[in-house]
Amino acid sequence: MRLIRHLHRGFCTATSEEVRVRFAPSPTGSLHLGGLRTALYNYLFAKKHDGTFILRIEDTDQHRLVPEAYDTIESSLREFGLNYDEGPSTTSSPFGPYIQSKRLPLYKEAAEQLVDSHMAYRCFCTEERVAFLRKESARRGEIPKYDRRCMSLSAEEAEARVKNGEKFVVRLKIDRQDVHFNDLVYGSITQNIDESDAVMLKSDGFPTYHLAHVVDDRHMHISHVIRGVEWLSSAGKHNIIYKAFNWKPPQFIHLPVLLKSAGKKLSKRDKDAFLDYYTDTLGVLPIALLNLLIRNGSGIRDHDINRLYSLEEMVNAFDPSLINRNNLLVDQVWLQRLSRLALFEYANFDREVLPFIRFHVKRIIPNVSQQALSREHIEKVFNFLREKEEAFAFGSHISEANFRWLFMIGEGNLERVLEEFGKDENAKQSCRKLAESDVAWSDLKGLASGIGWTAPRLFAFVRMALIDTKMGPPISEIVDFFGLEHCIQRMKIVEKSFK
């Protein structure tokens, strides 16, 4: 298929009709980052025009379904504040149901309409024959095409074969042609369509994506189709389907590519392509990820990359005519900046920060004490990280030695301390001196020298006694955070374990 892009670009503000847009993911697993971007722009467009944001689940490809993904999609949208106006949970809507597998009679009726109008025909060829035709076309170096063997069947013969129980698909007649349409981002487009007659309805009664989404967009009164640019190459075919039904197509808005790095697309094979990597594994607050998705300023008036926009502010600043064709780099450096900004300057502590930190602490430190999960302690940790640890930005950073100790509450594992240092007289001597008073704490290097130890060896012992790790922050930071009295009491406990 040849794609020609023209420079002309126009934007209709959709004042003449109600704006109705849809986010239509397939329930095949965790939501993709590109899917979140598509949902965000549909949401912004709808709210900017006082329109309707619809969630439609496209599950016609039954072989790829992940049952739990239905709920995952809805919960992900709620987590990011992208609440739909119509969707699977909507009751008493004239446009539902919003799950395609529950709309099969509608697609069957549409396919029969195409057959009756001679725009499509029933094809009874076996999968083996179709595969053979495809293989022969490839051998000759030609575009794989169905040879239209069944198009010559009379209506009576086709009906008789249907009544006889023969399996069939419904194929749309697609003659070679140039298709012209306008995209509100990529301008005037001409696509040369030269391909096989497309299957509209499969032999199992399920529609293909191409039929189902066109029929649903028509029946749900979708005014604008906002989706990733990867679907731009199929838009010509979709316009042919609209024409076959004599329906007016919606307006198209295709969003540019998400890049993992310069020149490399973010692929579904990448672990960082999915939302659960960012929210659960990496630990990023939703508002930070939403801001990353508008970082190139696409569609946001007077966009300031150094500030964090709330969802309401995004809606207010949204200008669809500013959506550009610049690909968006999923920049990890900027994600870290935005994540820290969201955590320490934007989020509500009790409603967002507290459950966020508790979730990641329990995920990373399964045996964490209840004291470490208390609001008082987490607030103390939060203030410490904000003031002294500029590198902390993600929930997953809790797993690092530089930060994990904050949730140990100074309760090192006595068995590990004894295993590592129990037979070392220097350890017993230093423990006794540190447990006696606060004087020794002020000159740890002097203490190490006085007992014949190296400073690094003493520091490793003190850290393990206090926070269960030999690596970590300066001892002064540990003392500053927990308090000297707490540290002295801890050393007294360790001292007793040596006896």
Secondary structure elements and pairings:
Layout: E1 2-5, E2 20-23, H1 33-48, E3 52-55, H2 69-79, H3 104-116, E4 120-123, H4 127-139, H5 155-163, E5 169-172, E6 177-183, E7 187-193, E8 199-201, H6 209-219, E9 224-228, H7 235-245, E10 251-255, E11 258-261, E12 264-265, H8 275-282, H9 286-292, H10 311-317, E13 328-329, H11 332-346, H12 349-364, H13 375-388, H14 401-404, H15 414-421, H16 425-436, H17 444-451, H18 455-467, H19 475-482, H20 484-497
Helix pairs in contact: 1-10, 9-11, 16-20, 17-18
Short account of what is shown:
Helix content is 44%, strand content 11%.
Which strand-content bin applies to the residues? 5-15%
Low-confidence stretches: 1-16
Instruction: Identify the overall geometry.
Output: elongated
- Structural class by sheet pairing and helices: alpha/beta
Number of helices: 20
> Biggest sheet: strands side by side, in what order?
1-7-6
- Count of beta strands: 13
What integer is the average pLDDT?
A: 89
Rounded to the nearest angstrom, the radius of gyration is 31 Å
Described by strand count, sense and barrel closure, the largest sheet is:
3 strands, antiparallel
What is the percent of helical residues? 40-55%
Terminal residue distance: 82 Å
